[in-house]
């Protein structure tokens, strides 16, 4: 890898810095959270607008663009039978609360660009687009086409990539800028399951009216709420205060105008693959409700899930704790809590090590549910991803990272699942640098302007090395 080439690419990226920042700000202003399908927008109008915005930016840079029925779009450059892919996503998780700056403002403060999607994944895919533009502007010789692929459903199951894979040939190599640097050689398997119970007993002194926490299963819920009716509401309020003080949790109760008691639990959001970095508001609330004079079958359920999960994030009490050398320990996030009619349900997100199978996990979960006397109501799972560390794709991206940054760091395994699981010959590569905090799915998500530009430099070199 020539030093002169690296410098030329870096200078070309730097020349485009203002345009890169402006494009990233523009795409952040669109609240591209999945909603009901409309014509030409299978994941909602706002997601569709974000896709068209990205394609318009790419067209303005001279790229050929394609919109695949609103599911996926891509910008393409070069010629040849084979192509290299860079896959990023424009959809985002809901913004939640507690933002210092507007979540869709795209504002810059002290060298940081704030907004939902700034680091996950709008900023990084814009960096990749401008990295390709640097290769194009320098007219570097390539033997393969390059596609910057804009996905629209990564946060809600990657149905977009299934649609793409069913209609397009796979890339010969590629990466997704949607994880961490350096290269991700392994991604844990994923499993979502629900522990539920149908209730039959009526309330006596205390009755549950509503129960809700979480908007996405892959986010640690930072707020949970229950509404109860009670013969002695003040006693319930006092019990809540005593519980909060004893367990040092943020839990409060208040009397509503209709005489019901509203209980709100507050925690800290985090990515579902890193649940230990958050504070689960749902599990705090369930632990308190398990001590209330609610109907016997509801209390039985509450105690069961509190004993089996509680504040644990490794699945130990459920009997599913497992780790391997390649990818580390299993993680568990209790992400969604719902009470509908006569059924209470807790939905969890598990990331399991690459040497385990989903079938093994489900077998253990079924056994645990049977022992707890509750239902394993539903489950889905996705397979792990694993590349040997000496695979050519891994070694090439590792060399690129070292060349551009001047640092040498071993490839890593992660719990998060990325687009790399949905297209062959691809791995995750950036944008989070070693030692940086993980801001995905959290309030005040941002990317520094320096990192945005540095990512573009790294991706420019990676694109060239994979496609030359």
Automatic annotation (TrEMBL):
One of its GO terms (molecular function) is zinc ion binding. The keyword Zinc applies. GO terms for biological process: L-arginine biosynthetic process; proteolysis. Keywords: Dipeptidase, Hydrolase, Metal-binding, Metalloprotease, Protease, Zinc. It comes from the Bacteria. CDD domains: M20_PepV (cd03888). Its cofactor is Zn(2+). Belongs to the peptidase M20A family. This is Dipeptidase PepV. It comes from Acetonema longum DSM 6540.
